[in-house]
Amino acid sequence: MFSSLFSRAMCQNNAPATSQNEAPQQMGLVKSLVAGRTIAAAAANVGGTAEGYSCEFGSPHYFALCGLGGVLSCGITHTAIVPLDLVKCRIQVDPAKYKNVFHGFKVTMAEGGVRSLGLGWAPTFFGYSAQGLCKFGFYEVFKVLYTDIIGEEAAFLYRTSLYLAASASAEFFADIALSPMEAAKVKMQTSPGYASTLRVAWPKIYAEEGVNGFYKSLVPLWMRQIPYTMMKFACFERTVELLYKFVVPKPRSECSKSEQLVVTFAAGYIAGVFCAIVSHPADTVVSKLNQEKGSTALEAAKKLGMAGLWKGLMPRIVMIGTLTALQWFIYDAFKVAMRMPRPPPPEMPESLKKRLQAEGKL
User: Fold this and answer.
1) pLDDT given at position 20
2) Which Pfam families match (predicted)?
3) Sign of the Cα pseudo-torsion (181, 185, 186, 191, in order)
């Protein structure tokens, strides 16, 4: 399946140039995705002159670098906010003991000291690094693949739906990679005394619940992460487009690297706020489900109640808003550093423009 997917998405260029100064014609999926548009490297100089590409857009090297950027953006950011994530999870599963964020930090430090705030960092790092690899890498693959399926005109007209479909597909696989480590992380953080290290937690979960212990929360994880990721990518892509259109006083190709990264961070934070809201109830269920052995997602939701499902929302908005902004910042900075090619914000294809003009709609 994966080899077939990548063979369709590779788009390596074997067509010869027609003249010395003419670039070889792009074939396959890349042609439909960026037809009529100039691909600019992420590290474009002011004035729109690219520094040169480190890889060909749509090649296996390109997708591999996108995956590596995802590893860095997700692994680093999630590990950095482990203390806040720890308190958030404890508020969700035991609101009587951990009344709010500040009280949660106070109780946690009183019971285990400052060091206890880092509980669960190892499964967080390894789990979200694996998730980032699949999330960002497959998103780029599916975005190109689905564009080829529906055609360049439909891809422009329904680009929000394209972003939603590509991100949902990518997150489906990303959560399968994340689930075992997420189970260990939540168990460590919400069951005091259960295990203090990943080396202890994994064998213990397996001994008690078998393989099911690592995947029993996969469905609620999909319920949490797929809407989150759909919002994360679609909202980010469209916010970037709107910022360059209405806020930034010049085209992206004329912006410096630092100016581009500021736009990336701003769009990422806006997307993160919406991400936190749409995915929070499922996040609470995941925390409760991994705390209690033998419980189902429906049972956990009923036990929490409507009010309980929204416990810890404010710290999660702060956490996810900052997290999402930093992830996009790191991912885009990685593209800048690696001199990766990147299409500019979507433009109407010439064929669609001519058709609309002929119909008097433009």
Assistant:
1) 40
2) Mito_carr
3) positive
